[in-house]
Structure formats: C-alpha cells, structure tokens
Amino acid sequence: MKYNPNEIEAKWQKYWADNKTFAASNTSEKPKHYVLDMFPYPSGAGLHVGHPLGYIASDVYSRFKRHQGFNVLHPMGYDSFGLPAEQYAIQTGQRPEDTTRVNIDGGVDKEGNQIAGYRKQLDKIGFSFDWDREVRTSNPDYYKHTQWIFIQLFNSWYNKDADKAEDISTLIALFEKEGNSKVNAVCDDNINAFSADEWNAFAKGNQQKILLQYRLTYLAETEVNWCPGLGTVLANDEIVNGVSERGGFPVIRKKMTQWSMRISAYAERLLQGLNDIDWSESIKESQRNWIGKSVGAMVSFKVRSQKSEVGSEELKIDVFTTRPDTIFGVTFMTLAPEHELVAQITTPEQKAAVEAYIEKTAKRSERERMADVKTISGVFTGAYAEHPFTKEAIPVWIGDYVLAGYGTGAVMAVPCGDERDYAFANFFKGTEGMQDIKNIFALNSPPLEGCPQGGVDFAFAEKSGFTLKNSDFLNGMGYKEATQKVITELEKLAQGYGKVNYRLRDAVFSRQRYWGEPFPVYYVNGLPQMIDAQHLPIILPEVEKYLPTEDGLPPLGNAAVWAWDSVNNKVVNTDLVDNKTVFPLELNTMPGWAGSSWYWMRYMDAGNENEFSSKDALKYWESVDLYIGGSEHATGHLLYSRFWNKFLKDKGFAPTEEPFKKLINQGMILGTSALVYRISGTNKYVSKNLKNDYETDALHIDVNMVNAADEIDVERLKRWQPQFENGEFILENGKFIVGREVEKMSKSKYNVVTPDNICAEYGADTLRLYEMFLGPLEQAKPWNTAGISGVFGFLKKLWRLYFDESGLIVNNDEPTKDNLKSLHKTIKKVSEDIENFSFNTSVSQFMICVNELSAQNCHSRAILEPLAIVISSYAPHIAEELWNALGHEGSIATVPFPKFEEKHLVESEKEYPVSFNGKMRFTIKLPLDLTKEQIEEIVMKDERTQKQLDGRTPNKVIIVPGKIINLVG
C-alpha cells in the first residue's frame, strides 16, 4: 500500500471542512489560546512558497495547543482594502471589489487571467483555520465597525489628568462650567483661553471648531507626502528613495487639510507598554525609536528681521532641545524648509534662493532626508533671532536635515556639541549668515588622538566628561546642574520651560483614493458631522473612474450618488445637495491601516451584526496569546494597533491594555534566481562558466525551466520569450548552465515558486515539513526545490513503519527499550521545540526517530500510535490517515499529546571500552549498578580478556564505573 499524498490530503481537508474540526468556541470550559497571523493582502499574484512560512509555524503551534487541551482560536482573513487593487482597476478598467473577490475566491478575471485564489491555496496546505470567522476588511459588514470606531474617536478627547480618553461630553461640561484654563488635555498648540461665559456665548459653529482642537481624530492642515502620479497621500513606509513604492512615481511634500489621529496622546503609554509584552528586543527598540521620548526644554527665540533690530514681540522661534545646557554655544538656527515662519521672516534679498530650495526639498521624503547624513544643504533666510540671555543676533537658516514633523521643526544649532550642526557650520564657513563656531566645553581629560583640546574642530556630544566655559552663569557646571539652572532662568524670562517631548507625530488618516473605508462624515458649513451609528455602514458608492476628478478632488468626487440626506438618513444623489437638509459627504477614504488596527477583536465574534465584538467574547478571548508576522510591520501596523486597542480599553470595550502578548517575526524565504549571460550589445548568450571570457549582462529567467544541475533546455528558453527566439547560445560541454543568485522572491525576477506546484507533486505535508526544516523561523533562508525530495522520502519511510505492499503491518508486540527510548526522546524534543519555536530541529528529530525505528524493525502499536500524534502538528494529513488506519474514529486533532516519561531515557547499561595498557581492544555492555569488584570479575572472566592476557596477570586493574576499564601490565 503506497503513500499517496494527493488522495489522503483531499480526503482529510474535506473531512475538516465538513465537520468544522477547527471551530473555536466562545463558551468552552477549556483554557483558551489565541494564535493570530498577520493577515495577507490578496493580490492577483497569489501565494508563493515564502508567504506560508509564518502560517505553517502558527499552525504547528495551534495544533500542538489543541493536543494539550486548549480551546484554540486560529482565524484567517484578508486585509482587502488598499492601493494595489485600485491601481490595477485604473490599469484594467475592472472594479476593485471584483478583482479583490477573484483574488480571494479564485476564478477568471476580466482580463482572462486564471487566478488560483488565496482561499483555495491556503486550504491546500492544510491549515487549521476557523473559517467561520473569516473577515475581509473591504466587506461592508466589517467596515461598518471601522466606521463606528472612527466615530468613537471623533467623540473623544484625552484627559491628561486621568491619563485616558473620555467622551467629548465631559469636556463640554468642563467648558460650560469653568472654560478651558484648567483643562489638562492633549490638544492643538496655541489654543486661546476662554471662560465659561465666553464658551456659552460662542456660536455653535465656533464651539465645533474649538472642539476639533481637542478631539482624538480631527481635521487639520498637515504636511503630507503627496504623490501626484497616484493621486493620493502616502505614508513614509510607502516611499522608497523619494518615489512611491508602488509605481515609482515622484513624491513631494505638500500641505493639505487631512483627517489625523492623535496617537501622540498615547506616546508614553505606548512606550511603557513595551515593558509588559514578550516581543523581540529589536522590535521593541524600533518602536521606542519611533516614539522617541526626549527630556529637555522648550526655548523661545525672538525674531529679528535684521541683525541690528530689536527682537520682535510678534514672532518667535520655539525650539525643543535635549541639551539646554549648551545654550551659550548656539551660533545659528535652522528651520525646516516647510516651517510656517520661513515665508514670514525671509528677507527680500534671500527670497529667490529660499523658494528655490523649498521647491527642491519638497521632492524628498522625510525618510530620505533622515537617512541622508552625507549631503549638506541649506540656505540663509537673511533673518536673525535673538539669544534669550546674551541678546546676540543669531542667523536663521533653513536646511532639510530639520523636519517640520519632528519637535518644533526648528533647532538651535550648537556646532561644538552636535555632529550634524558641526558639519553644517563647517560646510558654510565663511559665507554670509554663518558665524564662527563657539567652544563651550572644558574637557576633564585629553580628547582622543587627532581631536584638538577644546572641541572646536570636532563635535563633543557627550553628557559627561566636561565642565562648561564661555557660558556666563553656567561656567564650571556639568550637564545636570547646568540643565536645571538654564530652565530656571528661562522660566524667569518667560522664554522657556522644562518639557518631555516625543518624536511620534499624529497620524494622517486620509487617503485621496477610492478603494478604502468611506468616512461616516458629512459637512455642514464646512464643519464635519458624524452620521449616527444606527445608519452604518456608509457603503462605498459606484464610480466610473478611479482617478481623481479633473479639478483634483479624490475619486469619490466622481460619484453620482454621494450626499447625505439628514432627514431621511440615507445616501442620495449628489445633485440634491442644498446645504439645508442634504449635505456633501467626505470624499477621502480611510488609510490601509484602518481595518488592520482592530481586526483581531472581530475574529473573537465575527458573526455579530450589532457590535464589533460582544463583551462576553472580548472577556473570554481577552487578547492574542501569539502573533506571528513579518518584521516590516515593526512600527506602523503594530503602533496603530496598540493605539486603537488602548483607546478601546479607555472606552470600556477592549479588556486588556496590550493586544498582543507574544510576537514573533518570521524571516523571509528568499528565491534562488536563475540568470543567463548575454554578451553585451549582441543577441548571443554564454553558459555560466564561460562568462568571464566576455563582457556580459545578466538576465533573469524563469527558475521553473532550470533543473537540479542548473542546466536549461535552450529550445525551451527560445520559446519562453521572443528576445531569446533567434539568440545564439554558446554551450560548455554540450550544456547551457545558468547562474544562481539568492534574492527576494518576486515575479519580476522570475524566481517565484508556488506552493500549488509543490503540493501537487509532493503533497502539503512535505511542503509544511520542508519549510519548517529550512532553518530557524526568524532567519531569512533561501528556497531550494531540489532539497524537498529528501523530506518527501522521509514521509514515505514513516509510512512504511505502518504499511507494506499488502496493507497495515502494525502489531501489538511489546515495545523494546530501544523503541521506547526513540519515541520518548522525540516526545521530549518536539514538545520543547514547539514551545521554543525551534521548528527546524523538531523535523530533524522526526527523521532520527523514524530511522531508528526502521532499523529496530519496530511496528508496535504502543510506539506508532503516539508517534502519529506527535508528528500530526507538522504533517497533519498523513497523521490523520495513520490514526484512522489504526482503528480510531474522528480526527487526531484533539487527541491528548503523549506524555514524556523520563524513565525511558535513563540508561540502565553502559558500553565500556576495555583497554590494555591504554589501548582499547574491545567493548563490553554492563549494567550501570555494578560495583567495581563485580565489573572486574566479569571482565577478567571474559574470553577476550583471557586472550589478550595470554596467561599473564595484570599489575593493576583501573575501573571508573560508568566510564572506563583499563588493565595495566
């Protein structure tokens, strides 16, 4: 009876679906365990073998937990809103909802392309997902709740005294009672003070404008990454080298009125929460850096339009600095090119140069500017600021190393204490508006060799090892003492104060595109109004074009039915807008991270039509016990998710402060590309080992045309693409060998291997075991299809322990000590490996065990029955078949995991090496509990000893129990 994976796997996949084997219960008495995968974006390209790596790991863990008696929630869904589907719609004229559905469910798109479908691909790999809980973020029954959460954010403010979000009604009550002077809230800067009487006298529209300055989601004019080619705002992580990651279009910085989320309100809680979760230190550090907590001072510098003028009371430059102790070392100031003061303070003589520089830097993303530490550029504005203490005139420059979104968008430059300031000052030394560098550091010990004493020819950025000089009232002080003294003196002048600052900026929440969640917002007199939650969802309307309108409005500006009837509470024809009862709806849509910032809660109660999740479900599942996904989400997704979870906890919905207890980032499976070498300027191609004889260009070709020996059939290559059809091929030894290169798996590199082909040829269990066998989960590793046959051979060898050509050969023989030792070594190793996520070494142990049992000719039920359970987490289909063949009803999925028994690994015998004068002549197996005398008696009587001694009596017999036997003389 042969092992037939295709037949077995189809049988058990149908059984699992029909019997809902992996359905989790919200009322189980078992302990719960929630295992979550970062859900995929369903592109038409489908899955390649790199995508399932994390899913297989989480599935192994989920299955193991079921064997341990847990009620396991292991769901799957699709992050199905986003820019890729919209761009494909623009290119092909298809509706994004149609292409998204085909990409998930499979079928033929309008272009005639056969799409495998994510769902079918996932099912073929044998995942134990609870498919009854599937979510798709682009379905109205899902984004109805995303819209509801947005409304909750709009109707909330952050009370710093309570350190939590509260309903906006409590803020209004405070305003009505005492005005805003005592309100300690996270809000916009520079809010005007008002009394209770003034608030109550304000018109309703004015009150709404003021409340927008406090709401957790609000409208504001913001510097954004605008991509004209895509017609939308992009997040920093959607930009690579100054162009859009998708399409490669130029990106510029632009001011736009956008919806924003006040994530900055949660900065300290986001930072402190990292101490309570089991994540890798590298991911935590990424989040800490992104949040960027700094302790220092705010300093106000009055602005002079000319060097000789007295400081203006109207204009000032606010700077946040972590080094207020260095204030007497300031020699110039730098503003971000986007800073709102630039246009106001630039002198006529400098206007042209400043405007040209601003236009140039608008084409560089914030990320690009932060990363580029080598390029130094800037322009003098012609204006000066006034030093708070010395009253000296300080030249004001603009430079793109300062970002408007970080701190205040301005720095007080201390070249002797900051490397970037030093480089800037040194670069522009001797030009108008650049003063000589001041030295304020008296170093306590000689500087490093090559660095002159004093710190003028290099930047001394340490916070210790110096006292201050040339610093007026700070002379002789160190960092801590001087910092406190400066803050005290600044407060006396009303030009500064101590402050904790965060790099984390409020998150832009608008996208000028079609394929995203519609905002539940309409506008009355230009002010946003929330649609009542009972009328949700506000469903995405049909549009003819997915591009922005001719006058630059987002694609929803093309919708014929996109206005809100406030009387009948429904979406109506746009022509009916009268701004009395029918009003315009928001034209932007939510960003891709909206739906992914709460999806794990929806899985808890996915069928609930009225709530995003019931209180009972939230209480039962609480939070995710294990989250597996790619490290590319180290900041964006994970920060936004933690933010929304904390907000929902404040509002009494989420039961825990943190959503994900343990996080593991799987490494990437890399493709092994195939390259052919074209002689430059010709249509001639040379085999790999001849390429050094010519000047060549390397071209990627389809890896599926290359065999295990790196050879390619030239005639097949000629048929593959027209460019090769008439090519001349120079062979080596009658063969054409390709080059190999390990790089990211990508359609453009023709190195994609699909799991469908592997499953069809070798079976899903082979794919699962092989991906786990490739190496540690968190490391990147190259894919090599040639290696998969060894794993397939292992499964066939496992099968032969249970079956021969005639059928089942399992017997009821008593297992030997060696049988039990092999089994229990495996139980112990696999249990420990799964808990430690060391999946690759488990697969090695399976191979060792099966080899040992085969050599022992073991067919004992007492061994092979528990072995099927142990291997079932990794290779579930073959395990189900073996379990069924052994006479069991139902699935193996929840059968208790075998218990490890230490006694089977305790050695009762020792194979001693027997030496004569230090040379080992033979071995003898003896019980470990023998005394020295008993060992000596047995050894001396052994005929092999008698032969070696040849009638002699040894002078000495050295015996170390459990180790050695040596006869001397």
TrEMBL record:
A GO molecular-function annotation: aminoacyl-tRNA deacylase activity
Pfam families, per database record: Anticodon_1 (PF08264), tRNA-synt_1 (PF00133), tRNA-synt_1_2 (PF13603)
Enzyme class (EC, first level): ligase
Name recorded for this polypeptide: Leucine--tRNA ligase
Record gene name: leuS
Positions bound to ATP: 747
Main localization category: cytoplasm
HAMAP family attached to this UniProt entry: Leu_tRNA_synth_B
GO CC annotations, alphabetized: cytosol
UniProt motif ('KMSKS' region) ranges: 744-748
Keywords assigned by UniProt, alphabetized: Aminoacyl-tRNA synthetase, ATP-binding, Cytoplasm, Ligase, Nucleotide-binding, Protein biosynthesis
Ranges of residues in domain Aminoacyl-tRNA synthetase class Ia: 11-155, 736-770
Gene3D superfamilies per UniProt: HUPs (3.40.50.620), Isoleucyl-tRNA Synthetase, Domain 1 (1.10.730.10), Valyl/Leucyl/Isoleucyl-tRNA synthetase, editing domain (3.90.740.10)
Family label: Belongs to the class-I aminoacyl-tRNA synthetase family.
Record field: catalytic activity: tRNA(Leu) + L-leucine + ATP = L-leucyl-tRNA(Leu) + AMP + diphosphate
CDD domains referenced in this protein's UniProt entry, alphabetically: Anticodon_Ia_Leu_BEm (cd07958)
NCBIfam families with a match to the protein in the record: leuS_bact
EC number: 6.1.1.4
GO terms for biological process, alphabetical: leucyl-tRNA aminoacylation
Species name: Flavobacterium flevense
